[in-house]
Design a protein that fits this description.
37% of the residues lie in helices and 30% in strands. The strands form 4 sheets. Strands 1, 2, 3, 4, 5 and 6 form a 6-stranded mixed sheet that branches. Strands 7-8-12-11-9-13 form a 6-stranded antiparallel β-barrel. It is elongated. Keywords: Membrane, Transmembrane, Transmembrane helix.
Length: 487
């Protein structure tokens, strides 16, 4: 028997209604705000649906065009409603007739003016293209994210069966969709971030609808905006060589681990109005090439560099080969979506590059070209070996000379001193061996050039210490004193 007082039950029910009403009011305010603003990040982020504009292009025969125009929009609305629930607010229209031939990597070319206009009222622009060919039909979809202002990957499939087009179209749209989240670095654990997904707190939105799961990978993007929430010039920038790997997906706290080339890629305090966004990364089936080039010269490949690879959760890397003449090497998928690549030159680790194989065709990595430093190092090793030999000969002759002086062998001592005079001095060695090499070995990279100059400077210090002038004069003085004493 339930003995709980009715007034407690009433308070609980009232509390539940207040919570529901609060969410409902937030949704109403969010939707009202959406109707009059461009894509932006605000306090209604987690109760705001994605406003999706689906643009469809029918590149098919007249018969199929009429058939698809009648059946496809209704089918897609039904499938989108089932898959995304309240997370999507979708409008479906034909691709603008002004759209010209697509550029490379795009399904349809929309002018800057058209994109700007669409971004005022939408968060996602989804282009769906259905093309008829001699082999059947090609169905493809591509997303333009209005916050990030970039096109995503093209997803699609082929079929000979026209009846399969509607479901293939939905599947392409579903795969092209990129969930977005905001994030903040957790102060107590700076290697992790807490993420907030768009629409996550909308009633009826499940984890399945959000299309994220543990282990998913996100690419962080920094978006600098003005007072109106409009990106400033060059204000949208990916955080280089950095990914977020989702640890847990929960209503209370969704966290991710930072995987980066540096220890604190997100740790610096941001100035001004900055949105920190994360976009889901979906690896495709294509290979990814890592291409290394000089930091200041993209057309200068770094060939012959040793490359190692490991899973993001592994401790030991495995050697996978050297970069080819174009500075490139293929990165294969591993056990984890993010593969951490290490680059070695001259026995030294010079770079750590996280890569998600299959996401990008080519990943360009500008690195310091330290081949000049390695060349200088090799030359100086040879010079130092000469110097060691020279110092050894010099010390042996000095020892033998003093032995002759002590024994009273004046003529023998003079002969040895003359041999010492024939050995190169520090000045002669510097002019004949060091200076020519220093002129020949240079680097356009200021940091590398600074290292090269320090190496030569250190060698000069050694010259001055071990080939100090005055030894011959010192021995002649000792010989003269010994001769006077004998008389």
């Amino acid at each position: 028997m339930n003995c709980r007082p009715r007034n407690n039950v009433s308070r609980i029910v009232a509390g539940q209604w207040l919570a529901v009403m609060a969410v409902a009011m937030a949704m109403v305010m969010a939707i009202s705000a959406e109707d009059s603003r461009a894509a932006t990040v605000d306090r209604y982020w987690e109760v705001s649906p994605y406003r999706v504009q689906l643009l469809v292009e029918y590149d098919v025969s007249q018969v199929w065009r009429e058939r698809l125009k009648q059946s496809l929009p209704g089918y897609l609305r039904k499938r989108i409603r089932t898959a995304f629930g309240p997370l999507w607010r979708t409008t479906i229209e034909p691709v603008p007739t002004s759209a010209t031939l697509p550029a490379a990597g795009q399904l349809a070319y929309l002018s800057d003016e058209e994109l700007t206009s669409l971004r005022r009222d939408h968060d996602k622009i989804m282009v769906l293209k259905i093309r008829e060919s001699s082999l059947g039909f090609e169905v493809a979809a591509q997303e333009q994210d209005c916050l990030l202002e970039e096109w995503g990957s093209i997803w699609g499939a082929d079929t000979r069966d026209g009846a399969a087009i509607p479901e293939l179209a939905f599947d392409a749209i579903h795969r092209a969709f990129t969930p977005l989240a905001t994030f903040r670095v957790i102060r107590e654990t700076p290697e992790k971030v807490e993420m907030s997904f768009r629409g996550a707190h909308l009633p009826g939105v499940s984890e399945q609808m959000r299309m994220v799961a543990e282990g998913d990978v996100f690419r962080p993007v920094v978006r600098r905006v003005d007072r109106d929430g409009i990106p400033v010039e060059n204000g949208i920038q990916r955080v280089p060589w950095t990914y977020l790997s989702l640890d847990s997906v929960a209503d209370g706290a969704t966290t991710a681990t930072i995987i980066s080339h540096t220890r604190s890629p997100l740790g610096a305090r941001q100035r001004g109005r900055v949105d920190q966004l994360a976009a889901l990364v979906r690896p495709g089936s294509e290979q990814t090439k890592l291409r290394l080039h000089a930091r200041d010269k993209e057309d200068q490949p770094l060939a012959g560099f040793r490359v190692y690879q490991r899973d993001s959760n592994a401790e030991k890397e495995a050697y996978i080969g050297k970069t080819d003449d174009d500075g490139a090497i293929t990165i294969e998928p591993g056990e984890t979506p993010v593969q951490v690549v290490f680059v070695q030159s001259g026995g030294q680790w010079i770079a750590k590059v996280p890569v998600v194989p299959g996401t990008d065709g080519t990943v360009n990595a500008p690195l310091m070209d330290d081949r000049s430093r390695l060349e200088a190092e090799a030359k100086l090793i040879g010079i130092q070996e000469e110097l060691i030999d020279l110092v050894a000969r010099r010390n042996i002759l000095a020892f033998r000379t003093r032995a002759k002086i002590k024994a009273g062998d004046i003529e023998g001592a003079n002969n040895l001193i003359r041999q010492l005079e024939g050995i190169r001095t520090a000045t002669e060695f510097e002019q004949q061996r060091l200076r020519p090499q220093e002129r020949m070995i240079t680097s356009d990279d200021p940091k590398i050039q600074q290292r090269i100059e320090k190496m030569f400077s250190d060698t000069r210090d050694v010259l001055g210490e071990f080939l100090a002038p005055g030894l011959v004069q010192e021995l002649r003085t000792e010989l003269a004193n010994s001769s006077s004493a004998q008389r």
